[in-house]
Design goal:
single chain; 314 residues; alpha/beta; 6-stranded parallel sheet; 13 helices; globular
């Protein structure tokens, strides 16, 4: 995971997501990338355009103040996936890149889940210098070691060093605006739901973070930032039930008085799992059931049965 950052001493990371429905989304990916950059000795600033009333002015202000050697633009979504009231975000992203070009000569690289899904298309549409598809922490290191155009693939086999920066307030003052903060315990999804992009984004094998490291992040957010409400952003928190259980037990031991929600597959080994979830602070879970029709479950390539749905719901 080492390497040398050639000619780069400061990186500005921009979260371009401005969608506020159903609520603003904490820029977790940018925060994890910031930690990876800091481990290379690079100064980092995170600019979150989500709550901005004047993104262009805020962007020029931080460019003048921070003077980055490199700008990373994180794209969360291509559209809002809402029919019939569809919103397409790419024109806004293009205007953002144009604003960056007018305010800095630093290279502009793009990443995030939207870019990972449509990397070549977005690279051409936005006119960025390069882009990172996959794990941003690995991709940014690869780019810094060998700056080049095109799409850079990033993959972390081991997530043990993925963490939130411990100086988060210093590099991201906008954290104060968030009531709910995202946390990730693992990446990857072994399920094969026909419509889902998670396996394309994170791979089909679950890559867990150390449970104590996950609990460390949560405790830091509680103690240092006063956050009490969290969302586990894992594709399915119980894809690896044993790992989820270890994370929950670590949270119970810390007794942090938190509340959280998560995505779950509607299938558990034992109903006692829900008791552990509750003790750890879980107040809501979304099952992603979609249907209880055997034919539709087969068509969607779901890994659970109508009986699983009935038992888990009960």
């Amino acid at each position: 995971m080492g390497g040398e950052a050639k000619g780069f001493s400061s990186v500005l990371l921009i979260s371009a997501n401005r969608e506020r429905f159903p609520e603003p989304v904490f820029p977790l990916g940018a925060a994890y990338v910031a930690q990876a950059l800091q481990k290379l000795g690079i100064r980092v600033r995170i600019l979150d355009l989500g709550p901005s009333r004047n993104p262009k002015a805020d962007l020029h202000r931080v460019l003048a103040d921070f003077e980055p050697d490199l700008v990373g633009l994180s794209l969360r979504n291509v559209d809002n996936v809402s029919y019939p009231v569809a919103l397409y975000y790419v024109p806004e992203y293009r205007r953002l890149v144009e604003t960056l070009r007018s305010g800095t000569g630093a290279p502009v690289i793009v990443g995030g889940s939207a870019f990972s899904l449509f990397s070549q298309e977005l690279l051409e549409l936005l006119g960025a210098d390069a882009g990172i598809a996959g794990d941003g922490e690995a991709g940014i290191r690869s780019y810094l070691e060998n700056p080049r155009g095109g799409v850079v693939a990033g993959h972390l086999e081991d997530l043990s060093e993925v963490a939130l920066p411990r100086n988060l307030r210093e590099i991201f003052p906008g954290i104060r605006r968030y009531r709910t903060v995202g946390v990730q315990s693992a990446r990857g999804c072994a399920h094969r739901c026909s419509y889902c992009t998670y396996p394309l984004l994170e791979g089909r094998r679950v890559r867990p973070r150390p449970p104590e490291a996950v609990a460390d992040d949560v405790e830091h957010l509680v103690r240092q930032h006063g956050k009490r409400i969290f969302f586990f952003v894992d594709a399915s928190f119980n894809s690896d039930e044993a790992h989820m259980t270890s994370v929950l037990e670590a949270l119970v031991r810390r007794d942090l008085g938190i509340r959280f929600s998560c995505y779950l597959q509607p299938r558990v080994s034992d109903p006692a799992v829900f008791g552990l979830l509750a003790r750890a602070g879980c107040v809501a879970a979304e099952f992603g059931t979609d249907t209880a029709s055997p034919a539709m479950l087969r068509a969607m390539h779901k890994d659970f049965s109508p009986e699983d749905v009935a038992r888990t719901t009960e």
